[in-house]
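User: I've been trying to design a sequence by hand for this structure and keep getting stuck. Would you show me what you'd pick, starting by listing the structure so we're on the same page?

Assistant: Good idea, let's start from the same input. This is the structure you sent:
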């Protein structure tokens, strides 16, 4: 009796997993540049911290200014979400054209590092509020974010010039 219940549960779990996987593949295949760009959030205000945002890495603000301009945890969360969306954009480009593997791997790494840094900053913010350590992590995340945005701009220039103006406007 227990074994048959376990088997039924295992079959249901496998069916649920396969159903979710198929829905994810269908959603991914139905994406377009426009739908991906529309998912970018505007709450992080990183554009204001860099003189050459989307074209060059680096910030022209200190950690204190960066924290104020990204609006604290709201901006951090937007960077977290946008890093994932930009990663999806890179994967979309790889599926539809010949993308440089090194650039793709760099974008994957950027997205992972930004997300980890943001989660650490948010966890630290939850414990200690906005102290110097939180502001420094937020600054580091914003700096990595500008680099990823510049590399994404490069990818779009090479593989989806038509999507570039929308990306620039969304960022």
């Amino acid at each position: 009796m227990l074994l048959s219940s376990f088997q039924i549960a295992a079959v249901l779990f496998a069916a649920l997993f396969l159903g979710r996987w198929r829905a994810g593949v269908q959603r991914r295949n139905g994406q377009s540049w426009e739908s991906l760009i529309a998912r970018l959030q505007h709450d992080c205000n990183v554009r204001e911290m860099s003189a050459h945002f989307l074209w060059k890495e680096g910030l022209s603000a200190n950690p204190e200014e960066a924290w104020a301009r990204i609006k604290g945890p709201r901006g951090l969360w937007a960077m977290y979400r946008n890093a994932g969306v930009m990663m999806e954009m890179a994967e979309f480009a790889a599926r539809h054209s010949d993308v440089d593997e090194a650039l793709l791997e760099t974008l994957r790494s950027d997205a992972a590092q930004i997300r980890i840094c943001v989660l650490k900053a948010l966890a630290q913010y939850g414990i200690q509020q906005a102290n110097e350590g939180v502001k420094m992590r937020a600054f580091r995340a914003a700096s990595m974010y500008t680099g990823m945005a510049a590399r994404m701009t490069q990818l779009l220039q090479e593989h989806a010039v038509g999507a570039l103006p929308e990306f620039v406007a969304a960022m």
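That's my pick for every position. To get oriented when you compare it with your attempt: Residues 58 and 143 are 6 Å apart (CA to CA). The radius of gyration is 19 Å.
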